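User: Here's a protein and a ligand (adenosine-5'-diphosphate). What would the complex look like?
Assistant: Let me lay out the input and then the predicted complex.
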Amino acid sequence: MSRIEKFSRITRSLRFRVTAGYALFFCVMLIGVGAVYRQKLSASLDAQIRDGLEQEWAAAKGYLRIENDRPIWYYDHNDPDESFIVGRIQRVYMLADAQGSVREISEIYRSIGADTPAEVATATRSPQPIWKVRKSAQGSPYLIHAGAIYDEQHEKLYFLAIGRSLADNRHILEQFTWIYIALIPLVILSGCLLGWYLAARALTPVLEVAQAAQRISGSNLSLRIPSRGAHDELDYLIETFNRMIGRLENSFNQIRQFSTDVSHELRTPITAIRGQLEVALFTASTTEQYREAMLNALQDIERLSQIVRALLLLSQAESGQLALQKTRLDLCRLVADVVDQFQIPYEEARLRLSAELPVECFAEVDRIQIERMISNLLSNAMKFTPAGGEVRVTLRKETDGAELVIQDTGRGIEPDHLPHIFDRFYRVPGPESSGPERGLGLGLSFVAWIARAHGGTVHVDSTPGKGTRFTISLPMEPVMPAPPDSADVPVAPGMNEL
Ligand code: ADP
C-alpha cells in the first residue's frame, strides 16, 4: 500500500474523523471563550482606571483653587497621602482658561498634546465630563477626563483635564492574549491525543466484531460473535448480527436440504426410465415387451413432470411471483363444491365424507388456491384413512374469521413427525411413502403457503392410530399476507408454525 493510500485510509477512518471533530470543536470553543474573556478583562481593567480618574477628578476640585487667574494647590505638604494624591493628579494634568490659553500643564500631558481652544471650548460647555483616549509620541495610550471648573470667586470658567496611563492595562491584555494563544495548540494537541485514545477505546470492540464477522462464511455459518456482556449498544449490534446469521444459516440449510431432496426425487424416476429403456433395448423381443417398457417409462416421465410442475409452482409461490387473485365469495359453496368432487373417489375407497357448513360465509380469498388447499387435505385424508373410515369437513364462522376443520379417522401421525410434515418432500415413512403411488411430499407445503398467504394459520392435531385433524383459520377481513417464511404469522401456543 502506497503512502498516499495509507494516509487516505487513515483520514477516512472513523477514529480520525472523531478525533478531528473533537479537535475542531475544542479549537472553536477555545477561541470563542478566549475572545469573550479578553473582552471582559479589558472592560474591567478600563472600568478600574475610570473609577480612579473619577475619584482623582473629585479630589482635584478640592485641592485646586484658581485665584486671580493663577492655580494654587492647597494641601498639607507634610501629609504623605495628600502629597501622593496631588502628585499623582499633577502627573497627567492640564489647566487652561475658557479661551484655551494654557495656565499649567504637566510634561506627560504636553507629550500627548495640549487640547486645542476648540476642544477646550467644547469641554467647558459640555454639562457632562468628557472622556477620551490620547496617545503619546511613543504610542502609549492615556485615558483623559476633561471638564469645566470655576475659579475661587465663581466668576470665571476654566478647563481642567487629568489623565492616567492605559499602558499597564494594554500590557496585561497583551500578556493574557499571548499566553492564551500559546496555550491553544497545547490544549488542542492534548485534546487530540485524548480524542484519539477515546475513539480507539470506543472503536476497538467494533473492529473486533468486524474481524469476528470476517471469519463467518457460507461454510461455517454456525459461528457466532461472542457477546461482551456489557449490555450496551455494541452488544445489541452483536445480538442483532448473530440473529441475522442464524436466519442466514437456516436459509442456507433449507436450500442445501432442498437441493439434496430435489436431486434425490429426480434421480429415482430417471433411474427407473433408464432401466425401462435398457430393457426395451437389450432384452425385449416381442412388441408386447416393448410396449410394457415404454408404458412404464412414460409413467415415470409423468411423475418427473409432476415433480417439476409442483416445484415450479411452489418456488413461484414462495418467491412471491404467484400473486393471489382474491375475490369476495361464499366459502360454504366453495367447500361444498370441492367436497362434492371427492364424493365418488371416497365411495370407491369405501370412506364416508361429510360436511357441516353454515348457511353462508363470505370472505376475500383466492378461489383456485383455497380449492387446491382443501383438495390437498381431502386427498391426504383419503390416502391415509383405511376403508370404512370417516372424514368430516366443518366450516365455522368465528368473530374475526372462518375456521375450516378437516378431521379423519386415519392412521394419524407420530408426534416426532408432526413438526416436519409441512416441509418440502417430507413424507412420514409408511406403506404409502414408498412404491409408485407414493406422494411427492409437497402437498402440505402448499397448504401452509396458501393459509399463510391469506393471513391465516394451520394447526394440526393427530393421535396415532385414531386420526388427524387439520384446522385452518382464515381472517375474514382482507389482510396483508405475511411474507414467505415469516416468523410473524400468528400461531397459538402448542401449534405448529407454518
Ligand atoms: P404427500 O404427497 O406425501 O401426501 P404431503 O406434504 O401432503 O405429502 O404430506 C406429508 C406427509 O404428511 C405425508 O407423507 C403423510 O405421511 C403425512 N400426512 C399428511 N396428511 C395426513 C393425514 N391426514 N393422516 C396421516 N398422515 C398424513
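Summary: The first helix runs from residue 3 to 12.
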